[in-house]
Amino acid sequence: MLAEIIAVGSELLTPFRQDTNSLFLTERLNLLGIDVGFKTVVGDDHAHLVSAARIALERSDLVVFMGGLGPTEDDLTREAVAQALNLPLRRDPDIVAKLYARFAKRRIKMAENNLKQGDVIAGAVPLENPNGSAPGQWLEGSVGHLNKVVILLPGPPQELKPLFDTQCMERLRVRFKDNKLFIAKRELRVALMPESECDARIAPIYKKHKEVQTTILGHAGEVQIYLKATAASEEAAEKLVSELSEKIEDELDDFVFSRAGESLEQIVEYYLEMRGATIAVSESCTGGLIGQRLTSLSGSSRSFVGGAIVYSDDLKTLYSGVPPLLIAEHGAVSREVAAAMAEGIRKQCNSTYGLAVTGIAGPKGGTEEKPVGLVYHALSDGKKTDVVKRLLPGDRERIRWGASQQALDMVRRRLM
Length: 416
Fold this sequence. Notes:
By secondary structure, the protein is α/β, with parallel strands linked by helices. It contains 14 helices and 17 strands. The protein has helices at residues 21-31, 46-59, 77-85, 93-105, 157-167, 169-175, 195-206, 234-252, 264-275, 289-295, 313-320, 324-330, 335-349, 396-415, and strands spanning 2-8, 35-42, 62-66, 89-91, 119-121, 125-127, 136-143, 146-153, 182-191, 212-219, 222-231, 256-258, 279-283, 304-309, 353-359, 374-380, 385-391. It has a 6-stranded mixed sheet, sandwiched between helices. The protein has a 5-stranded mixed sheet with strand order 14-13-15-16-17, with helices on both faces. A 4-stranded antiparallel sheet has the order 10-11-9-12. Helix 2 (46-59) crosses helix 3 (77-85) and helix 9 runs parallel beside helix 14.
């Protein structure tokens, strides 16, 4: 079975908003063995919406529309889908009554334009939306010579997600009960290996497994490998991805840090807790990014004790105990200063490990001797201090993220 998701809203075609609902819907549909073949974003234009709806209905078994069900003039999904299906809209008195009751409860006079939220495509089943004023709609039947399912959902995630889970999942399970296919997925994450090198090493492996769809995505300091297999049973699908995953892991060895899509900070946090260890950070060019990543996790206070953002030389001395003469002799961006920062913050915070980063994130400040992208990372436990020098590519944001990735991977490798 093939599904198509259409996100409606001109705001999704700007640099300021992005569609995240389709990620949620794809996950849910895959649980039912339904593959998503197309995702489309359409602005608030009636003709464009009608065209997109007709194309989707021609090529997909299930079409899900998100957004455009509100009360304003630019909410056009109901009207456009009805036109694409050559079906009339009818105003549902029960929905209208609930709308009046909703506004009366809030002691607000309902504007006339809210009534359009009661318009239902002929033959559709309204889907109650307890978290908003716009109900969804479920429609199934013949389009041409094919049987299709069309779902209209409100756009706000806090409305869409519970509505889909409570009113659409079971309907879809029953509707597509004869769909005997199951989908299994695996997400491997690889640290500090270029995408090209990763692919060169594993391509000879995954090319022999045509039954598993393999997708490789590069990110700063990380490669993500997505595996997806479809089979007649859940066990068979899982076996396909497991066999390929194991072969890829054997090839890449300890460069693979996650087998279920966990972030690097999650893995580091796991290792720290498993070892009963704590960590403190001293950050210069990353400006607190490492601490932010670690503290984004619930329960991180059990292993992350704190740290300091030491951008200036004076603060490197004050909070990380770096001798001023060391900075004067070697420069703030140096192997020696990074090591001193790591050991200094460890002592200052009384933690098991001290982690430090100092570098030049750019775009200014680089020299021939110390170019933009030069970063030193250090990790100390009081007995041993490791220092790694890296020359990271990219703009300021990419260098800072890559530096945080290298720092966290140092911790992971020490604790493995």
